[in-house]
Amino acid sequence: MSYQDDPYTPRTDAGRFGRWLASRRAETWMFFAAGVLLGGLFF
User: Fold this and answer.
1) What is the rounded distance in angstroms from the CA atom of residue 41 to the CA atom of residue 21?
2) Residue 29 and residue 21 in contact, taking contact as beta carbons nearer than 8 Å
3) CB crowding 7-31: b at 16 or more within 10 Å, else e
4) For the segment 17-35, what is each residue's pLDDT rounded down to a tens digit?
5) Rounded distance, CA 43 to CA 19, Å?
6) Are 10 and 3 in contact (CB under 8 A)?
């Protein structure tokens, strides 16, 4: 099965994560992203 034959498989996790982000406030996921970024830099 090639990549183009099944377009749903590579997008399953991204779609789920996208819906999770859409259900959150912008401040929430921006704060989370900033925390991950700072955590990666300092730890």
Assistant:
1) 23
2) yes
3) eeeeeeeeeeeeeeeeeeeeeeeee
4) 777 767 777 778 788 888 8
5) 29
6) yes
Which residue is it, tokens 């990549």? 3
- Written as six digits, the tokens of 26 are 């912008």
Q: Cβ(24)–Cβ(33) under 8 Å?
A: no
CA-to-CA distance for 43 and 32, rounded, in angstroms?
A: 16
Q: What is the 3-state secondary structure (H, E, C) of 13-38?
A: HHHHHHHHHHCCCHHHHHHHHHHHHH
pLDDT digits (tens, 9 = 90+) for 3-12: 555 555 555 6
